[in-house]
Input
Amino acid sequence: METLPDKVLILSVGQTLEPLEFALSEHTPSGVVFVASQGSQAVAGELVRRYGGGLRFHTLLLDDPESLGEVFRKGREALQKALEWEARVMVADITGGTKTMSAGLVLALTGQGVTFSYVGGERRDAQGRVESGAERLRQLEDPTYRYGLREWDGFRRAWNQGDFPAACDFIAELLNRPLSPSEQRFYTHLKGITRGMEDWDLFRHKEAWQGLEKDLEPAVGIAEAWGHGAKVRVLQGLLEAKGRLRQILDQEKKPTFVLLADLLANARRREARKRYDDALARLYRAIELTAEADVFERTGIVLRDPETYPDPVQHLAGRAGKKLGLKEALGLAFEVDAGLKNTGTKAQRLYGDYETTLQSPLQQRHQSILAHGIKPVDGGALEPLWEYLASLGFEAAPAWPHW
Output
């Protein structure tokens, strides 16, 4: 059974043999992937001849060693070869070859679990080459590891897609990196903020408020002290959004217009992720909530709470405690307005439009696999409901800021 390499060295090959020999002797790899040009492949061949033995090797040839794109692609191929060999340690030595080769390999291999090295030395000849016998190997830390660039990029993408559990996971990984005290504080607060946004996205408004109240302002202060304008912009945007959250909590468990706008924003986030069934379920509820909020904001009556019904409509209170479907809820809202002698209200319009304008787009909700059917929902099913709600003057709350 063939033994796979424990350590694989990815070696850029130029015209000078000695520093590459030094890198091989210092790293003592069990496998080498050479990245060489047409003009330097003979050097790679000589290294194989001298160090062949039990050394496993593979050579990738560049047609143009000055092409950054080609070097990048070959660097990724070299990485794939090392992974195929199931290397437990991967090192890339960027001593040999053109500057473009060094730059391309760094671009291709940063953030991929690769350590970099470079053979240098203080004594050099007239051509600037390190003198034989004066070589020194330098280990070069991958800066993306120190600064958590992979984790930060993953966090940004997850947040911007509304996947807050994944965003929390990336922040947790980042917190395991070597950080300064202020970085540790900032990312700890950011993790708390992200958990708060996850709660908000799940309509757990009280828990969201508690998390943001604890972590948001300290994070803003650190970002301002750092002078990180982009971070300050996002966090300041969240402070503005937090004000809308406070409005929801100030009338907790009440059907308000601010709660309706929050629900519509939630639907927009689901739609953006192509979760159309989820978005349509929210729009279905939004039609119902529109009627409830319209009645509540004008009269103080909570449609489903019989204790809020005044004398003129007390005879309708018995229906409030029952389980109401959408059509029944719209009908009750219509009768409440009629009993109070209100005319031309949005709730009355909703009831009137149910059979004509709303029933067809809402029917797709009933046919959804998340309701009573087996049909998936496509994005086109949402547009008529968005347009209808906009015609009533209702829009989603402003989108949360993106990183």
Remarks:
- Residues 276-299 form the longest helix (24 residues).
- The mean pLDDT is 91.
- The first strand starts at residue 7 and ends at 13.
- The beta strands are 7-13, 31-37, 56-62, 89-93, 115-120, 136-140.
